[in-house]
Amino acid sequence: MENFVIRKAKIGDVRAIQDLIMPYAREGRLLPRSLSELYSRIRDFFVCEDNGRIVGCCGLHIVWEDLAEITSLAVNKEFHGRGIGRSLVQACIEEAEELGIPRLFVLTYEEEFFRKLGFQIVDKNIFPQKIWVDCLKCPKFPECDEVALLFNVSAPQESS
């Protein structure tokens, strides 16, 4: 993967993370994130850095003792197809494993991308913690058209 570095985000990365997320939010593909929310959740995020420039981000948000969510996966469009998204999700999976979180889920329009990483489609209603905490704030609630996918951290991943 070229000269990219995947690392935990720092406070100084917040504006770059927001800049990555917002074009996708304007397209309705990601939820917009305020600076305040990003600062308060900075520990959730990994970033991909290319020669000092943040070109990708992804969050691992803990929802419950046995469940975390992959959030805000965004890669600068100039850098699509280079494995950055896959590497960011893998960093989140590895952190979930280190934390002892057995299940990860994602709500997404990128079903095929996550299926290639070993996620499986599930009914989003199996995540009541997510619905009552975050979904109620979403402009698409209750008519969510995203696909829910689940990953069992301890299960072997597909390779492709």
Characteristic terms for this protein:
about 160 residues, alpha+beta, seven-stranded mixed sheet, 5 helices, 7 strands, disordered C terminus
Polypeptide structure, described:
There is one protein chain. It contains five helices and seven strands; from the N terminus they run βααβββαβαβαβ. It is α+β, with helices and mostly antiparallel strands. The chain has a seven-stranded mixed beta sheet with strand order 1-2-3-4-5-7-6. The chain starts with a strand and ends in an 8-residue tail after the last strand.
Brief synopsis:
This protein is α+β, with helices and mostly antiparallel strands. It has helices at 14-26, 35-40, 84-99, 111-116, 128-133, and strands spanning 4-8, 45-50, 53-64, 67-75, 103-108, 120-122, 147-152.
Terminal CA distance: 15 Å
Q: Would you tell me the overall average pLDDT?
A: 88
Helix content range of the residues, please? 25-40%
DSSP helix count?
A: 5
Oligomer: single chain
Write the layout of secondary structure elements.
Layout: E1 4-8, H1 14-26, H2 35-40, E2 45-50, E3 53-64, E4 67-75, H3 84-99, E5 103-108, H4 111-116, E6 120-122, H5 128-133, E7 147-152
Parallel strand pairs: 4-5
Antiparallel strand pairs: 1-2, 2-3, 3-4, 5-7, 6-7
